Every structure is written in structure tokens, then in C-alpha cells.
């Protein structure tokens, strides 16, 4: 599924938690089919940006549009429906329930009115897509960490969302498994899914076409528009790595 316009549009978006500003004056656009890495130290605003882009949180100020829909104009019910059809999530921890692998994936469609048999058919197709056709009959506890993350990705792309948000997807994996997961995310990107990876890993960021750096809740570098705000305290050595 490909959206006709930008998937994500942030205009002067700000998010406050009490007296703390976690995201400040952020302008950002993500278009269909992009592969983006967002990097920054702890507390830089990466997770807040992900929750805003993922419609898990509304901005305190500014405008956020997802596939053209202004978040402030949507009820919670419509927002949930938009999220379910538009965005897939992958987190550092796999969050897989105990039981058959195919059901762990199929349950991603549980609340969309899809019959159980059809859910399982789509789940098997998604598992094949991530290279786990031979694990369909296994239980989640029988999988390695890398395999569990691929199951989580299969669940995230089950409904063919145009946008996949991955929060530290290799953070709990060894280097080999991490490389396998990154290659899978690149394949999804080549197939047309827009993938945004939140990471602290500079090597991952350096290998991605578009790199965005956050510091103190602000974008201080975006390779798509060549924005580098040295006055905001960004480390020049870090920027050389990102370039």
C-alpha cells in the first residue's frame, strides 16, 4: 500500500511533559519508500519523536499529519484506526506472546475483523517474507533472539503498512543477528515500505540513505536537507560520521 503524498509531516511540532520539553520546533517530512535513521544520545528526543510519528502521542503544539490527516482533528477511535492501517512498529524487546509463532504474527490482525483462518494464511506469508517459513510450526520460546525479532517484523508488516517504525531493532541482538535484521529492513525498504529506524548505533546510521540527528529535542542534522546546527552543540566528529 503506497500513500499518494507524504506519510509524515511535522511542522513546528513540540511535545512537553510538564516543564520538560522533549521535542521542540521540529519540522520533518517522510515520504513513501524512504529509509531513514534517527540518531542521538539518551534524552535527545528520539523516543518522543517516534511516539509522535507513530500517533501514540499528540503534539503539545505545532502540526502533525500522517498520510494527510491532522492528528488534532482525529478522535481517539479514528486515530487508532489510522495507526492500525498505516503504521507498523518494531521495538528492541520483541513482545512476543508464548505459543505458536504463526499465532504470534496472526494476532496482529485480531482486532481488524479478519477471520482466524485468513489471519493465519497472511501470517504464514509474512513469515515467509522475513525468511522464517521453516519456523511456522515452532513456538516462540524455541527461537533465537534474531529469529524473534524477525517474527516481530513479520507481525509489524502483516497488514502491509506504508510506514514501519523501528525503535532500536538491533539493540538486544548480537552483531550477526543485528546484521540479518538490518538487511531485512533494507529489503522491506526496497519493496516500497518507508522505514524509520531509531538508533544510537552510528554504524547503522552511516549505512542508511537519510540520516537525522537529534540533540536536546531538536533536529541538528538532516542529510536530506543538509541542516547542521553547530550552535546547538552538535559534535562535528559525529556529523562527519553521519555524512
Automatic annotation (TrEMBL):
Q: Does the keyword Nucleotide-binding apply?
A: yes
What Gene Ontology cellular-component terms does the record carry? plasma membrane
Pfam families assigned: ABC_tran (PF00005)
Q: Where is the ABC transporter domain?
A: 8-241
SUPFAM superfamilies, sorted: P-loop containing nucleoside triphosphate hydrolases (SSF52540)
- A GO term for molecular function: ATP hydrolysis activity
Give the residue spans that cross the bilayer: none
What are the record keywords, sorted?
ATP-binding, Nucleotide-binding, Transport
Read off the SMART domains from this record: AAA
Can you name this protein?
Peptide ABC transporter ATP-binding protein
Please tell me the species this chain comes from. Embleya hyalina
Amino acid at each position: 500500500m503506497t500513500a499518494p503524498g507524504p506519510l509524515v509531516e511535522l511542522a513546528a511540532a513540540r511535545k512537553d511533559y510538564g516543564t520538560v520539553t522533549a521535542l521542540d520546533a521540529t519540522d520533518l517530512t517522510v515520504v513513501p519508500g524512504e529509509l531513514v535513521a534517527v540518531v542521538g544520545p539518551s534524552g535527545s528526543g528520539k523516543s518522543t519523536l517516534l511516539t509522535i510519528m507513530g500517533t501514540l502521542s499528540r503534539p503539545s503544539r505545532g502540526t502533525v499529519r500522517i498520510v494527510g490527516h491532522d492528528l488534532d482533528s482525529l478522535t481517539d477511535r479514528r486515530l487508532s484506526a489510522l495507526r492500525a492501517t498505516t503504521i507498523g512498529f518494531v521495538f528492541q524487546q520483541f513482545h512476543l506472546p508464548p505459543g505458536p509463532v504463526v499465532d504470534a504474527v496472526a494476532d496482529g490482525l485480531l482486532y481488524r475483523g479478519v477471520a482466524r483462518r485468513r489471519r493465519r494464511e497472511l501470517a504464514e506469508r509474512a513469515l515467509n517474507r522475513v525468511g522464517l517459513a521453516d519456523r511456522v510450526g515452532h513456538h516462540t520460546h524455541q527461537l533465537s533472539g534474531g529469529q524473534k525479532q524477525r517474527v516481530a517484523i513479520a507481525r509489524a508488516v502483516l497488514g502491509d503498512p506504508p510506514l514501519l517504525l523501528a525503535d532500536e531493532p538491533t539493540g538486544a541482538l548480537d552483531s550477526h543477528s543485528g546484521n540479518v535484521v538490518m538487511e531485512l529492513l533494507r529489503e522491506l525498504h526496497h519493496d516500497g515500505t518507508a522505514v524509520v529506524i531509531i538508533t544510537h548505533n552510528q554504524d547503522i546510521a552511516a549505512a542508511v540513505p537519510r540520516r537525522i540527528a537529534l540533540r536536546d529535542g531538536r533536529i541538528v542534522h538532516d542529510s536530506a536537507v543538509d541542516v547542521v546546527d553547530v550552535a546547538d552543540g552538535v559534535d562535528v566528529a559525529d556529523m562527519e560520521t553521519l555524512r
